[in-house]
Amino acid sequence: MLNIALPSSGPLYQSTIDFFNSAGIPIKRSSLRAYAGTTTFDKNIKIIFQRQSDVPKSISNKIADIGVLGLDRYLENIQNNKTKTLIEKLGYGNCDLVIAVPQSWNDINNMSDLVAYSNTNKLRIATKYPLQTQNYLSEHHMKLYEIISTNGAVESAPQTGIADIIVDISSTGTTIRENNLKILDDGYILFSEATLISNPVTLSNYKDKFNSAKKLLYFILGHMNSKLYNTIIFNIESENEN
Question: Which leading EC class covers this enzyme (predicted)?
């Protein structure tokens, strides 16, 4: 049995269902509270709905064999897991991991400005992505800061006094602007979208899992490749039937 873990909620939930349906892999879920789904695509496939952050853990622990989650979530949980990307970019669920500061900080518009400011002011940074935040700040040689991990509404952290700036996911930038924040000109840490991951060990050790996974990938890749082409229908009048 091939176990596939899909997002149980959030922006990627419905878009993942739609993607699989469009690829000829129908997914059904009895209710939004159900953690198991079904598909008529292959009798040897079982659908599991989980939080995105739990998908890599489930695959590493062999609870699931294949999973879908945002690339941002995958990279944040990449340490100490045994997963590999099958398809890094599925073509939907696009968003950016960004650094945003208060709009009132008129003199800080890029990372150079922020690093210079942090040399004399210890910055408190609220985020759900401490690993990627730390890596990015290290690349820019920022040393004086404190990362505050939070699972709440990150955008509100500066207004409530929890933090000075934030690192968070943004699709349109609207929520960030509505909370009186601005994205730094070069404050784009990651361009993320939905990604397909797996545990290569379980797939290689079990023939039935491997065969179902191969069939699944064939349909997914076929669907993705079909988007590269357009169908053109001509209606040409002619006296000759041929």
Answer: transferase
Domain that holds residue 171: 95-192
Contacts (Cβ under 8 Å, ≥6 apart) of 49: 5, 6, 7, 8, 29, 34, 35, 36, 37
Please tell me whether residues 66 and 111 are part of one structural domain: no
Residues in the chain with pLDDT < 50?
none
What is the pLDDT at residue 218?
96
pLDDT at 238: 55
Question: Is the same domain home to 85 and 197?
Answer: yes
Residues 175 and 209 in one domain: no
Secondary structure of the chain as H, E, C letters: CEEEEEECCCHHHHHHHHHHHHCCCCCECCCCCCCEEECCCCCCEEEEEECHHHHHHHHHCCCCCEEEEEHHHHHHCCCCCCCEEEECCCCCCCEEEEEEEECCCCCCCCHHHHHHHHCCCCEEEEECCHHHHHHHHHHCCCCCEEEEECCCCHHHHHHHCCCCEEEEEECCCHHHHHCCEEEEEEEEEEEECEEEEECHHHHHHCHHHHHHHHHHHHHHHHHHHHCCCCCCCCCCCCCCCC
CB-based contacts of 56, cutoff 8 Å, min separation 6: 67, 69, 73, 74, 77, 78, 81, 83, 197
**What digits encode the pLDDT tens for the residues 101-151?**
999 999 999 999 999 999 999 999 999 999 999 999 999 999 999 999 998
